[in-house]
Amino acid sequence: MQKIKLIHEVRAVKNRRELANIIKAQRISERVLKATLLKLKTGITELAVEAFIKKSFIKLGAPILSFSPIVSFGKNTANIHHVPGKTKLKRGDIIMFDFGCTVNHYCSDMTRTYFWGELSKKQKKVYKDVLQAMDLAIDKIKKGEHSAKIIDKVARSFLSKKYKNNFKHGLGHGVGTVIHEWPNFKPKSEDILPVGCVMTVEPGIYLKGFGGVRIEDMVLITKKGAKNLTKVAKNLKSVIL
């Protein structure tokens, strides 16, 4: 007897047109990120950067965003869902951007963490650890793993050995016409990733009074593994501004 697919399962698998919209939205976001990095200067506020991001999306013909942009500086980066405020950028700060836009109703999603000037030993360690957790998870998908729980565990167990109970959200989620779609990377998730779905992979560490690091890419689940849809450098050298 054939299993009847539920609507969220059908919706998760993207056809070529849907995938093209998601990729186009991501490429626009990448252009906005590039312009935003050039806009940064000591003393600029989170609110000013957020306003620039919104204007840039309008200029590029994508005025409808996937969600309200997250722009956080310094200790504010420890707040997972920080709302941009009057905090000014200063040397030594961690900078976090999390934003995306929509093209024909299809969303993109990306997070990048940067450092304004030379970074401390601790900042460097946290960044490298989060990046390694992300690489471990993506490698697991590329090797053909489709169990959301197992993929989440690879990143989570790596980080939990170094930072006790600090990775406080799922490793990622499906992306489509809404920003959080089925399936979900969570410790107790029973979801199995179907070929053709687009997932975020976004490990993060958040240390109160210090700051946080989150890195997020969108990945297409393929028959032979995975294809990373995000084309923004994230190696340590590229994130020191």
Global Rg? 18 Å
* Parts with pLDDT < 50 across at least 5 consecutive residues: none
Order of helices and strands: HHHEEEEEHHEEEEEEE
| Total discrete domains | 1
Instruction: Count the DSSP helices.
Output: 5
How many beta strands in the DSSP annotation? 12
For the largest beta sheet, what order do the strands appear in spatially? Answer: 1-2-5
Q: Determine the oligomeric state from the structure.
A: single chain
So, the CATH homologous superfamily?
A: Creatinase/methionine aminopeptidase superfamily
Overall pLDDT confidence: 96
CATH topology type: Creatine Amidinohydrolase
Q: Could you give a short account of the major beta sheet?
A: 3 strands, antiparallel
Strand content: 15-25%
Category from helices, strands and their pairing: alpha+beta
- Can you tell me the CATH architecture? Alpha-Beta Complex
* Helical coverage, percent range: 25-40%
Overall description:
This protein has 241 residues and is α+β, with helices and mostly antiparallel strands. The protein has a single domain (7-239), classed as Creatinase/methionine aminopeptidase superfamily (Creatine Amidinohydrolase). The protein is built from five helices and twelve strands. Strands 1-2-5 form a three-stranded antiparallel β-sheet, with helices on one face. The longest helix has 24 residues, at 16-39.
